[in-house]
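Minimal example, chain plus zinc ion.
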Amino acid sequence: MNNLTAKFKEFKCFIEEKGSKKYMIGAVAAAAVVAVLSVCTLSTSYSLEIDGKKVGNVASKAVVTQALNEAQEVAEAASGLDVVSAYNTVEIKAVHSFENDFMTDEEVAAVIQEQVDWLTEGATLNVNNGEYKFSVATEAEAQAVLDKLKEGALANQGDATIKSVEFLEDVTVEAGNVKVDEIKTLAEVIAEVQAGKEAVKTHTVQKGESFWTVARNYDVTVSELQQLNPEVNPNRLKIGQVLNLNCLEPLINVVVVKEITVEESIAYATEYKETANLYRGETQVVKKGTNGKKMVTYEVKETSGAVVEKTTLNEIVISEPVSAVVNKGTKAVALSSRSGDGILNWPMSGKITSPYGTRSSGFHSGIDIGGKIGRGVYSAAGGKVVLASWYYAYGNCIVVDHGNGMKTRYAHLSAYKVKVGDTVERGQLIGLCGNTGRSTGPHLHFEVIVNGSTKNPINYLK
Ligand SMILES: [Zn+2]
């Protein structure tokens, strides 16, 4: 097609739209005139604008109207909903210009398809004045989402009396036009609400808390809590220490206030009675204690399943606890060295592999008791730990001062269960059997020291 014919065609198009054909001469001779007219005269064409932004020039309004109708039909067919109007503002403005570079019908259709959203009558579920918004098909559907969330919070509440169920957030349902392609199903909205947002929270360790109780209170596993706090030693929590908690928080939280009544035990007390019949540090149960029982009614406030407030409303004692009675020894460790006096407990189970006294390698200041590494070593009597560290040939060594000039020494240990300054009771685990220091195999070297001199332990042991 040569240039002249093209000009003629455009012109033809123009005059046709004007609704008149009387200028259509159809003569080739007229083409020249037409070309001149077309070039030299301002012609009326149309500018297509979507939301105030020019998209291009179109030859006629009809092209746009047609494209809009088609796009609307496509949107309706795809969603099964009735479209009310276009979400975007589509304008066709008449302009007078020399421009004759028009968009094709296909281009117009594609632009409309791509840029124009459609509105339908629906409802919006609005959280905290627009913090989160969900478009749903009907008001009833939005209400169903809220009912479902409450239902979920009330499941598994046992025989609790529910006092109120509310949302923590300001939640409203508004009927009105919503974008067709933003409409979600009930299941989709619930899933999004529950998937929630990731909130970075911290917890400051309080007195009496352990890694385990913190994990339980925030509904995370101990290993998850450990992963979030790689620097923290779970066995050495300090009061005031800050732990990281990365919790998923729902977009809508259900707050449930309920009343529950539970049976709880009342711990018994222990009455101690001093007796000279037992050594200091020794105890003897005279009467076992019994825990009491009570029915306690609490008002509990839960947010998304986590207890945030707990108030005691009422307590009824079913049975009182019965105190335990325990005799507590006051008798000091005697310094008698009569054989079999029995004032000291055996420090570790096992046989004597080397006795006290002179032997080929020199004087043996204690007894050796054969044992495996890790076997428990127990304090021979009540007292105070005065040494718990490496001590020359003794290796890892513990010395317990029993008062009255008597001490006992435990050598070659593999581990300590006490530290200097600890008060220990007779029979209390203080360390583990080992093979440290000058030692030819796992054993416990046990010494009895009276007023600074070692004595034959056999004379003191039970
Ligand atoms: Zn020894």
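The chain has five domains: 3-118, 122-195, 197-249, 255-328, 352-459. The first helix runs from residue 3 to 17.
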